[in-house]
Amino acid sequence: MLSPSGWLSATGAGCAAAMSAVLAKLLSSQLPMLVQALGYGGVVLLNVLMWSLYVRSLKTLSSLQATVVNFASNFLISGFAGYLCFSENLSSQWFFGAFLIVTGIVLISEAGDTTEKCKTN
């Protein structure tokens, strides 16, 4: 099973990356220059947070587990944010893909646990 702190850090990294993308998409050239500057500062801060959380997750998870959880949370949050903020469609194919990603996370997590048990024996 994934380490709770590693899992939360990897998930948080994916969420921060998704929110950074959403914020960047919300910024337009029609906004005042100060608002744009603050918005892009927020994008940079969210990316710094994402990398910080990702590196923290690597302390307790394998690089494969951390990367997959980070990617999956980014994908899922980006999809739902697109639906909520930008009225993008989430088709049945998207939900099937999300299901496959979550299934893959479970399989990779279990494989990582098996590998760690073999190393300790």
From TrEMBL:
Localisation: Membrane
Main location: membrane
Transmembrane intervals: 34-55, 67-86, 92-109
Keywords for the protein's UniProt record, in alphabetical order: Membrane, Transmembrane, Transmembrane helix
InterPro entries found in the cross-reference section: EmrE-like, TMEM42
Statement: the UniProt record of this protein carries the keyword Transmembrane: yes
Descriptive protein name: Uncharacterized protein
Organism: Ceratopteris richardii
